[in-house]
Amino acid sequence: MKAAIIGATGYGGAELVRILHQHDYIKQYSVYTSSQVGMKFSESYPQFNQITNEQLKEIDIDKISEEVDVVFMATPSGISNELTPKIFERGLTVIDLSGDLRFKDQDVYETWYKKKASPKDVLQKAVYGLTEINREIVKDAKLIANPGCYPTATILGLYPLLKNVKVDLDSIIIDAKSGVSGAGRKASLATSYCEVNENFRIYKVNEHQHIPEIEQALKTVNPELGPIKFNTHLVPMTRGIMATIYCKPLNKMTEKSLRDLYQDFYQNDTFVRVREEGNYPSTKEVYGSNYCDIGITYDERTGWVTIVSVIDNLMKGAAGQAVQNLNVMLGIDEGTGLYGPPLFP
Ligand SMILES: NC(=O)C1=CN([C@@H]2O[C@H](COP(=O)(O)OP(=O)(O)OC[C@H]3O[C@@H](n4cnc5c(N)ncnc54)[C@H](OP(=O)(O)O)[C@@H]3O)[C@@H](O)[C@H]2O)C=CC1
Ligand SMILES: CC(=O)N[C@@H](CCC(=O)OP(=O)(O)O)C(=O)O
Fold first, then answer.
1. What are the catalytic residues?
2. What local confidence, expressed as pLDDT, does residue 259 receive?
3. Which pTM was predicted?
4. Taking a C-beta distance cutoff of 8 angstroms, is the pair 13, 74 a contact?
5. Can you give the residue ranges of the Semialdehyde dehydrogenase NAD-binding domain (predicted)?
């Protein structure tokens, strides 16, 4: 099987190259660019010197359709809206890392992304690829809307509780933080070293584009869920997302019942690891890996639950989950190419 990576010169695309290079089933991959045609991929990422000789190719949909079976879109939002319908209609499988295919409602996308939405029929066919939750429908999908990084950490953290316990829905607060690679490779003032180093800052306050994505997914568990309270912070680190989630169950719980619930829920999911009592994950403990680590506690004094969910934004939050979804679609071991342990320290 051969894969194409469109947007390979970005961080998500380069992470796809790193994973596919060690993938037993995808024997070949090719890399595409809108701005660096003819250049070697390793000129853009010298860490791939003598590992891959792939040259960056022009994005020509007809040629791509003849050469590959699956296309990863690792492009900024707005690009997949244009390209994916053309690729999909030629019979290829598409996995889109951007936000373009995540919403069934075009108005929601256009409101939050301020771009023209994909055609309705394409959106209807896209499956939201949060693997652990949607594995059964991912199996038969040909078009995957790969989830956003913050939604992946947040939804995996909240889902077992909302599914099994009555929660005061207004009490839910999601306080999220990200490393700088979440913003992509392109330089901007806000992500330059001087602005980020030894700094900690909130951004996109109450207007982050991942708010409606989290709402859409969690409403499938409880349609009564109202607007969620979600904010994001930029942390001076390269990779990693931490979502700290607070909420109040309507009835008293015990620490043990909460932990049993999470451990049972994720018992067959290799890539979600639930911590033991008193043990909370840090972002370095999933660095460079496809794991989502979750720490949970019930505070008997206040009656509130705290959930801490961490991922590597480029792995489980993007390229790792994209390959996990492809593996599920292919019917091969879900972890193919993804079993590498986290890099530490
Ligand atoms: N970074 C992260 O942690 C996560 C990112 N995502 C999403 O994944 C996608 C890729 O993100 P990321 O890799 O960080 O972004 P980058 O900015 O690092 O890379 C995006 C790449 O897209 C290509 N591109 C830009 N404009 C166009 C265009 N008009 N047509 C075709 N290709 C274009 C560029 O390559 P070239 O100039 O060579 O064409 C660029 O290298 C985004 O939609 C992002 O929101 C999702 C989850 C997490
Ligand atoms: C640190 C940082 O800037 N992160 C980006 C993540 C962008 C992203 O993943 O965008 P889509 O999922 O919408 O494609 C942000 O918060 O906007």
1. 149
2. 97
3. 0.98
4. yes
5. 2-141
